[in-house]
């Protein structure tokens, strides 16, 4: 019997509120399934389970706020048998609420709240909700994400195909949620500036080849399959990380823990001054198309406040692209416990000398903020040089 | 060219990427990206939304001509499949 516990969804998270269960006792779950929605300072997070099995018992009712590490449910890894497995011996962590719904003062189960019928269509709760709002049967929607999951876009497309009904606008995040997110950003950034000895390097990269290639590529594609320049930048960073692994991983308990997978955090600004940097998993191994799809998906879900637990906890290095605002150069603050952050500014046309000739080229500023405990400037310089080199051969990205 | 019938579809597509935007408050002669906090991903999704609503192909080379609401409506008016009854092959 395994315990599914309240995960830590950030270095500064102490408690989480269980907003919604997406499974019920008897449901079969697979590793990676989204089983619950937890409210945090970063908004609602879809929490994935790391062990498959059959849900035996829900220990914490919806609406309860519990400390990180509190057992939330019991999951049996064995194949379900006809005889009811004993659940009485549920272990309890010291200092955590008793694993009994009745023990919680707020434990009035809301019978009105229907437990989703757990259809086997893979879709985020946001997509499910939108589907419900638009009266779209999820089973009839073809998921376009890599793993076949149905995205918000798929639901909208299905709704648009069905009837010309306008999609209702999602309710913007409440002001108090914005305040909570601000507090979370403040805590993380204060810790970063307090603990991380940053060093900063910057370079200018000629994007002519990359953008020419992209333009030619996009000309061949229908609008729905076009790529954004940001995707080339992200892929170049992810590949450069392989060459300079000191930029990828975590500083934990006085030591650098390098990460082999490259989970690229992408900074996404939200209305009301919010900011999240969820991970695109294994970005170095994704094709540009897959990376574009992943970026679109994660931006969309970040905007509606429906990220997954693995996305908020996994980034091994973060990229922030502030060029949209026309800014020239980014001097980034590392997101602890990560050890590096790459910043891109606006792509601007500048006079640029190539082979003794002056021309006008699209130029972008790339900066690296890195943790001096994990890497030295010489390696950081190699990292930026690798990004530059990779962007000169866009067809290989 | 009369573009009145295009407007609702364009605003629907816009609402999907900028739900907080008030279409009535938009200045049709000022760039959308200056009036709304939308980035290049939002803008691309907006054009994809228009494409899905109206079936109009929008080459990337034309993006610079599509900055204001009026420009977009005029462009779509030129580009949309001919509404001529009976004649159009599709």
Attribute tags:
heterodimer, A: 397 residues, alpha+beta, OB fold (Dihydrolipoamide Acetyltransferase, E2P), Chloramphenicol Acetyltransferase, 2 domains, 7-stranded mixed β-sheet, 5-stranded mixed β-sheet, 20 strands, 26% strand, B: 90 residues, mainly alpha, Non-ribosomal Peptide Synthetase Peptidyl Carrier Protein, Chain A, 4 helices, 46% helix, globular, disordered C terminus
How many beta-strand elements of chain B? 0
Rg of chain A, Å, rounded: 23 Å
CATH architecture of the largest domain in chain A: 2-Layer Sandwich
Q: What would you give as the CATH superfamily of the largest domain in chain A? A: Chloramphenicol acetyltransferase-like domain
- Provide the helix percentage of chain B: 40-55%
Low-confidence stretches of chain B: 86-90
CATH topology grouping of chain B: Non-ribosomal Peptide Synthetase Peptidyl Carrier Protein, Chain A
Oligomeric form of this entry? heterodimer
Percent helix range of chain A:
25-40%
Distance between the termini of chain A: 45 Å
Q: Which geometry of chain A do the CA atoms define?
A: globular
CATH architecture of chain B: Orthogonal Bundle
Instruction: Give the helix tally of chain A.
Output: 8
What's the main sheet of chain B like? Answer: none
- SS class of chain A: alpha+beta
Total number of β-strand segments of chain A?
20
CATH superfamily of chain B: ACP-like
The two chains with the largest interface, and their residue counts, are: A-B, 24 and 21 residues
Q: Return the CATH topology of the largest domain in chain A.
A: Chloramphenicol Acetyltransferase
């Amino acid at each position: 019997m395994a315990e599914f516990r309240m995960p830590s969804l950030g270095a500064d998270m102490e408690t989480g509120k269980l907003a919604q269960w997406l499974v019920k006792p008897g449901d079969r779950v697979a590793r990676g399934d989204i089983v619950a929605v937890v409210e945090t300072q970063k908004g609602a997070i879809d929490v994935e389970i790391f062990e498959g099995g059959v849900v035996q018992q829900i220990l914490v009712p919806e609406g309860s706020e519990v400390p990180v590490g509190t057992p939330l449910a019991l999951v049996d890894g064995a194949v379900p048998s006809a005889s009811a497995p004993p659940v009485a011996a549920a272990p309890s962590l010291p200092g955590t609420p008793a694993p009994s719904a009745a023990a919680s003062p707020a434990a009035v189960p809301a019978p009105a709240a229907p437990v989703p019928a757990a259809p086997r269509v893979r879709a985020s709760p946001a997509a499910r909700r939108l589907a419900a709002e638009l009266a779209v049967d999820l089973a009839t929607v073809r998921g376009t994400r890599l793993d076949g999951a149905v995205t918000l876009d798929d639901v909208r497309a299905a709704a648009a195909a069905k009837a010309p009904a306008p999609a209702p606008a999602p309710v913007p995040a409440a002001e108090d949620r914005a305040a909570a997110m601000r507090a979370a950003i403040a805590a993380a950034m204060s810790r970063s500036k307090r603990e991380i000895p940053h060093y900063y390097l910057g370079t200018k990269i000629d994007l002519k080849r990359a953008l020419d290639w992209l333009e030619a590529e996009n000309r061949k594609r229908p609008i729905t399959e076009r790529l954004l320049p940001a995707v080339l930048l992200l892929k170049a960073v992810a590949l450069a990380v392989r060459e300079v692994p000191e930029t990828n991983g975590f500083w934990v308990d006085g030591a650098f823990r390098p990460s082999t997978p490259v989970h690229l955090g992408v900074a996404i600004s939200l209305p009301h001054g919010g900011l999240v940097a969820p991970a695109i998993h294994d970005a170095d191994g994704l094709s540009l198309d897959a990376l574009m799809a992943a970026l679109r998906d994660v931006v969309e879900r970040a905007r509606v406040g429906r990220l997954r637990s693995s996305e908020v906890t996994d980034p091994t290095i973060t990229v922030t692209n502030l060029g949209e605002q026309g800014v020239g150069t980014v001097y980034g603050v590392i997101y602890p416990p990560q050890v590096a952050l790459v910043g891109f500014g606006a792509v601007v046309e500048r006079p640029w000398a190539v082979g003794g000739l002056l021309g006008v080229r699209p130029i972008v500023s790339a900066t690296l903020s890195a943790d001096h405990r994990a890497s030295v400037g010489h390696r950081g310089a190699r990292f930026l040089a690798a990004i530059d080199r990779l962007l000169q051969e866009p067809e290989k990205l | 060219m009369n573009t009145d019938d295009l407007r609702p579809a364009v605003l629907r597509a816009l609402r999907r990427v900028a739900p907080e935007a008030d279409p009535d408050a938009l200045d049709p002669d000022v760039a959308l990206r200056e009036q709304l906090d939308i980035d290049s991903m939002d803008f691309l999704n907006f054009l994809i939304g228009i494409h899905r609503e109206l079936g109009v192909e929008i080459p990337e080379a034309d993006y610079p001509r599509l900055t204001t609401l009026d420009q977009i409506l005029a462009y779509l008016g030129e580009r949309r499949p001919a509404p001529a009854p009976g004649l159009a092959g599709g």
